[in-house]
């Protein structure tokens, strides 16, 4: 017999499902779906552990990290798991919360549960977390419910006068009972829907110092780009590098350029119809992205490369590129194409919506018109977005007002920061790009921890400049749990929902 304790993978789901069905027989056979396991593995792969016996998964423990003080001792299972979405998982939290542990009944004589608990303890210590907390079933309680209260039952289990298959095991593994929970797991008839709130304390916990908090302060640099004609590509790159260098000098984590900021390079094609000229410009995009990616690495800053046209399968898209300072490049294509983009350039919309994982947390990107559709940023928020970046290009103050007001609304309704950056100036020798209006800014939610007008900082309108702003992600965590209003939590998801269809 070969026994292995390791991280769970999605490929294990077939074995996992079989073991769950056996272990959950007394709970009505309810099991975790493959989609749910996939979500946990994406959020916190280190916390999902299993034991394989002869390469078959027969035992499993699932966990998330939370800031425990945000929930307290009176939470329910639904509350601590974010209604089973695990939106409560916080990589910067202080507590490893066990949401599941089981062993297939066929293998319960091998002390596999003890191995899982030991693996959890090692994980807790390696991540420098304060403790392991979980809600534990008391499956033997139904036999004594008529004569003993839950607390009396627990006291007798502690005194070894009664054996409970779950609680006795937990106590023997150095867990102690903090509290009795009522209505913790609806449907657990063996426990009469009571549970024990159990805890194991990490004696090696070192606490969190001020430097860890400062790591949650993110510095954003925005470029309010002056439209000007360039004699050649070298001159264009020189201007781009100037801003990257300047923002990097302030140790910024991100720099963002505006939408279609490279359209001054259309000038040599001005004799062509707009649609053909934009396609010629698209031929330069791969080279420009490669150059910007080299700046991201050499200047140690994540660059959101405004947006540029890209041609694929004879279709023209408006795309932005997230150039990580690690060397990786990711792409987002504008979803909603404006009537003018369709009329003059024949552009089409992209169809991929996702947040991006960066070394500064999860971010979302929307291009200009996209921010006027609230569904997109709500999907991002559900995926854990903390900062939304919006490169834009508007010719009139009317257009700018639409982008600004909608961006501010997105910050409030999604409890996130929103940064917008646009182009200014004139391009008299480029068709359909002759005038621009912009005032770049960083917007915040509206509550006491933020500016009263919900504007963190903004540029002077219609002037080339850069804006460097610090945003504190801790304030978003506090807002989410302790704000005057809790917009994301208070949604009536029993009545309506916004979901991704593709």
TrEMBL record:
Residues 218-473 form the CN hydrolase domain. Pfam families: Acetyltransf_1, CN_hydrolase. Keywords: Hydrolase. InterPro entries: Acyl_CoA_acyltransferase, C-N_Hydrolase, C-N_Hydrolase_sf, GNAT_dom, UPF0012_CS. GO terms for molecular function: acyltransferase activity, transferring groups other than amino-acyl groups; hydrolase activity. Residues 3-163 form the N-acetyltransferase domain. It comes from the Bacteria. CDD domains: NAT_SF, nitrilase_Rim1_like. SUPFAM superfamilies: Acyl-CoA N-acyltransferases (Nat), Carbon-nitrogen hydrolase. Belongs to the carbon-nitrogen hydrolase superfamily. NIT1/NIT2 family. PANTHER family: HYDROLASE YHCX, NITRILASE-RELATED. This is Carbon-nitrogen hydrolase. The lineage of its organism: Bacteria, Pseudomonadati, Bacteroidota, Sphingobacteriia, Sphingobacteriales.
């Amino acid at each position: 017999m070969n026994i292995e304790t390791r991280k769970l993978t999605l490929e294990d789901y077939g074995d996992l499902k079989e073991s769950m069905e056996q272990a959950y027989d007394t709970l009505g056979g309810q099991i975790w779906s493959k989609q749910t396991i996939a979500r946990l593995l994406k959020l916190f792969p280190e916390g999902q552990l299993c034991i394989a016996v002869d390469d078959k998964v027969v035992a499993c423990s699932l966990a998330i990290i939370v800031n425990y003080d945000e929930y307290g001792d009176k939470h329910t299972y639904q509350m601590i798991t974010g209604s089973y979405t695990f939106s409560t998982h916080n990589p910067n939290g202080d507590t490893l919360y066990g949401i599941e542990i089981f062993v297939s009944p066929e293998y319960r004589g091998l002390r596999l549960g003890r191995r899982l608990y030991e693996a959890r303890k090692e994980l807790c210590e390696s991540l420098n977390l304060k403790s392991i907390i979980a809600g534990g079933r008391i499956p033997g309680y139904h036999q004594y419910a008529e004569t003993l209260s839950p607390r009396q039952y627990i006291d007798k289990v502690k005194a070894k006068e009664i054996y409970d298959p779950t609680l006795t095991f937990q106590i023997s593994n150095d867990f102690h009972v903090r509290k009795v929970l009522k209505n913790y797991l609806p449907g657990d008839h063996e426990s009469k829907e009571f549970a024990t709130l159990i805890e194991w304390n990490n004696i090696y916990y070192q606490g969190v110092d001020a430097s860890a908090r400062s790591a949650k302060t993110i510095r954003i640099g925005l470029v309010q780009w002056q439209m000007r004609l360039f004699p050649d590509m070298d001159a264009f790159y020189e201007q781009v590098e100037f801003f990257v260098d300047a923002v990097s000098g302030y140790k910024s984590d991100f720099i963002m350029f505006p939408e279609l900021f490279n359209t001054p390079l259309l000038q040599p094609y001005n004799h062509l119809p707009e649609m053909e000229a934009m396609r010629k410009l698209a031929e330069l995009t791969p080279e420009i992205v490669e150059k910007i990616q080299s700046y991201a690495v050499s200047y140690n800053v994540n660059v959101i490369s405004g947006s540029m046209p890209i041609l694929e399968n004879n279709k023209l898209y408006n795309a932005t590129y997230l150039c990580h300072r690690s060397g990786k490049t990711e792409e987002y294509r504008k979803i909603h194409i404006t009537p003018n983009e369709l009329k003059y350039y024949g552009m089409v919309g992209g169809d991929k919506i996702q947040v991006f994982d960066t070394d500064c947390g999860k971010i979302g990107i929307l291009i200009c018109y996209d921010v006027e559709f609230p569904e997109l940023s709500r999907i991002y928020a559900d995926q854990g977005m903390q900062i939304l970046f919006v490169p834009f290009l508007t010719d009139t103050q009317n257009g700018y007002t639409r982008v600004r007001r909608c961006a501010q609304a997105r910050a409030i309704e999604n409890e996130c920061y929103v940064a917008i950056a646009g182009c200014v100036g004139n391009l008299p020798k480029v068709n359909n790009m002759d005038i621009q209006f912009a005032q770049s800014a960083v917007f915040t939610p509206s509550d006491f921890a933020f500016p009263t007008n919900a504007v963190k900082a903004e540029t002077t309108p219609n002037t080339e400049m850069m804006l460097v702003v610090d945003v504190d992600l801790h304030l978003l965590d506090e807002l989410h749990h302790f704000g005057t209003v809790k917009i994301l939590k208070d949604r009536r998801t029993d009545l309506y929902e916004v979901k991704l269809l593709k």
